[in-house]
Amino acid sequence: MEDRALGSKGLTVGAQGLGCMGMSAFYGATDETESLATIHRALELGVTLLDTAESYGPFANEQLLGKALAGRREDAVLATKTGVEITDDGRVIGLNGRPEYVRRALERSLRHLGTDHVDLYYLHRIDPEVPIEDTVGALAELVAEGKIRHIGVCEASAGTIRRAHAVHPLTAVQTEYSLFERGIEQDGVRDTLRELGIGLVAYSPLGRGFLSGAITSPDDFTEDDWRRTDPRFQGENFHRNLDVVREVRRIASDKNVTPSQLALAWVQHQGAVAIPGTKRRRYLEENIAATEVTLSTEDIAAIDAVAPHGVVTGDRYAPELMATLNG
């Protein structure tokens, strides 16, 4: 797998990373044995960027990664996140970007991860009650102490990114980016990242699995799968979005690749590091094969024709979560 630089401060990662959230939360039943095997297989195949957050579980996902990386910490570029306040007993309080919380949360994450530093530490969501300069200032102090190596933010507006970057250089911005979600092409975020030399890390590059082509009915989800409440998987939205997936599948078939591989290859073609999430080795291996897929000018035009900006029907999240985006 080829390497890609994130930012301008020397962080290099594989062209595709691994989102680990679903191994512990939100996407139905979990299997620790298979999850550990999936992480280890990812490292064998050249994946280096492993993505987690204290809120995934809460804490369970960081603890899983700590177990997976025991004795091989140097093999991974470890990314985790703060900014969603969680009590030590796992109760989620709400957004919190105050410097004192950021510092306390990092110390807890280091314990769960079994390490003395985090390679990339993100502000998970922007706290509107705390100036971004204060939060990033606290993160910069943690960089100076050696407890984090690089700083990132998630789901931030172009203006917030500029303000944060002025305090301390950002290495990466993580945001949703896929054939279903191309908003950063229109709101100035992608252009800002390119101008400032900040890396783009794309989460949900498969549209939460929709673009894999494997989902054909809202009934495909178990009762404990949060996608049952995702607006894009509801009612008429579902069927309209499924029509788009059928077109993506057609183009993928013409190239003799899977829909997932086509969707991931498109994200990577845009210069982003995709972090598709999976908890099974067979899907991991399918996803990683996308790094070998080359898209021609004609391929890009065909994809853009069936999946332009705004093609998806339905909001990204339920209203209460939509309110936390683009801070």
UniProtKB/TrEMBL annotation:
The keyword Oxidoreductase applies. Residues 17-306 form the NADP-dependent oxidoreductase domain. It holds the Pfam family Aldo_ket_red. It comes from the Bacteria. Keywords: Oxidoreductase. CDD domains: AKR_AKR13A_13D (cd19076). SUPFAM superfamilies: NAD(P)-linked oxidoreductase. PANTHER family: AFLATOXIN B1 ALDEHYDE REDUCTASE, ALDO-KETO REDUCTASE YAKC [NADP(+)]. This is Aldo/keto reductase.
